[in-house]
Amino acid sequence: MCGIIGYVGSRNACEVIVRALERLEYRGYDSAGIAVVNEKLEVSKVVGRVEKLKSRKFEGTIGVGHTRWSTHGKPSIENAHPHVSCDGKIAVVHNGIIENYLELKEELKTHSFKSETDTEVIAHLIEENYSGNLKEAVLKAIKKLVGAYALCVVHESKPDEIIAVRSGSPLALGIGVGENFVASDVSAFIEHTKKTVYLNERELAVVKKNGVELFDSEGKKKQLAIVEVNWDLEQAQKSGFKHFMLKEIFEQPRTVEETSKIKINAELKADKIFITACGTASYAGLVGKYVIERLARVPTEWVLASEFRYSNPIVGRKDLLVVISQSGETADTLAALRLAKEKGARTLAIVNVVDSTIAREADDVVYTRAGLEIGVASTKAFTSQLVALYKIAEKMSGKKMDLSGIPKAIEKILAKDKEITEIARKYFKVYNFLFLGRDVNYPIALEGALKMKEISYIHAEGYAAGEMKHGPIALVTDEVPTVAIAVNDEVKTKIISNIQEIKARNGKIIAIATEGDTEIKKHANEVIYVPKTDALLTPLLTVIPLQLLAYHTAELRECDIDKPRNLAKSVTVE
Ligand code: F6R
Question: In whole angstroms, what is the distance from residue 193 CA to residue 227 CA?
Fold first, then answer.
């Protein structure tokens, strides 16, 4: 969480940094700030969006910036980054959490603290260790830090260098001509350069206008490994769509096709498989559990990463842990991966962001190739994760899944966008939604509910339809619509019974059904049809109307769709 950026070159640093912060806003957006060195260190902070920084005009060609997702201390000017040392000469921006900050604050009693944040101790710690060499001071300071950090540091007396260092939080360098960048991710500088260096754990970079030097945490010089990123600015723009989320929903015919081309080269032999992830990625994993067990008959346990890591899991050498992550940086997923490795299990990561920490640390990696996903609510990454899981199940079982018709089928569903908008118009004022599914579409009910609540702020519950009568049916009234996934599969008659139970209690039904099923109209108030396909593949189709329903509901409620309140795209804290 939080986005950080550093720039050194010949252009106006303030302008470059504010633009970059706008691209990083998906990581956090409750406050923002900038520090520029122009003889003196000048700092400006705002509560709210980066946009507010646009009115600040600083001269100077070196600086750092930050967009915040609060962990320690509420959004306020004092708590916004950059944080500065007592003498006002050192500015620090930070992404991560310093766990021992209270202890350090105690040690730094003589310093005067202005914020409630964990980050501020870093500025004071560097000040304490500074005697003319900023790199040395940072190296000394990080030795004392416990927790996760990606840092950019500037000093008023060093108007030509930024010190960048990371441990546990991501950081990339952008290598330009006569200018260089540091950022939480590549999207911040992609319009200036595609040449990138991904910093490894505990590496430190001295970033100057005409060059970058890399060091390990003991200060020993290292070789720079420059890679060329394979996407461009176009992907970081909305291309005529009102929101990134809508653009990304509409990209799915192409992204699913792209992911279908991947070859699985990973070692998949295992006595037992564990699938773990967070949020939307975890629901893709739950579909994966059904599919792998159905096709390959290998026992597969699905567990949320935040639970796995503290459960003392019985996992060992003969097991395979599959982690799934769009960003490749999610703290709980990364911790689950590290724990399974420690216990001797083989690990396979299904990841979207190339060279992310999870991708680099897993034994094997399958890239989903969905392209840059900017909308905070994950859509195209989810369907690509599903495709990757189908491919894994194919390889494990030797059985073929016919994915060839899926892109066209998704296009057909997307063509119902107007129809789905009209359905959203009927229900957008409700306070509660229920989402029901069974078997492979049970995780889709969970995902539909998650999409609805995170962007429209309507309370939504996803349930296995058979569980309704064990409690949740008490919620049903004529004001609580139920979205029921009732496609042609082995459990369809069961879900029709569940729908009837809801109708009998005056509940309204929005059914997701298979084309040609005219019967369903007798049971449902609204029907959204999806094309016919293999029952195991239906999640790839049934999720699309749920994404659009959530999107249009949120749009009608005038919500901030790409930046829902309290959320961030990349969850790098526990
Ligand atoms: C919801 C959403 C989140 C993420 C979760 C994991 O729309 O995007 O639930 O799926 O935070 O993120 P990644 O996939 O980056 O590990």
Answer: 11
Q: Which domains does the chain have, with CATH numbers?
A: 3-234 (3.60.20.10), 237-404 (3.40.50.10490), 413-559 (3.40.50.10490)
Catalytic-labelled residue, pool 89, 380, 451, 569: 569
Residue 569 among the catalytic residues: yes
Q: Is 289 an annotated catalytic residue?
A: no
Q: Which residue carries 């249009």 as its tokens?
A: 552
| Cα–ligand 1 centroid distance for 40 (angstroms) | 41
Which ligand 1 atom sits nearest the alpha carbon of residue 358?
16
State whether the beta carbon of 285 lies less than 6 angstroms from ligand 1.
no
Which amino acid belongs to residue 436?
Answer: L
| Assessment of whether the complete model's pTM goes beyond 0.85 | no
CA distance 476 to 468: 10
Ligand 1 centroid from CA 24, angstroms: 16
Q: 454 CB under 6 A from ligand 1?
A: yes
* Ligand 1, atom 11: closest residue by C-alpha: 279
Please tell me the predicted confidence (pLDDT) of residue 262. Answer: 96
Low-confidence ranges of the chain (pLDDT < 50): none
Q: What b/e string do you get for 294-327 counting C-beta neighbours within 10 Å, with b at 16 or more? A: bbbebebbbbbbbebbeeebebeeebbbbbbbbb
CA distance 196 to 202: 17
Start-to-end CA distance of the chain, whole Å, equals 10
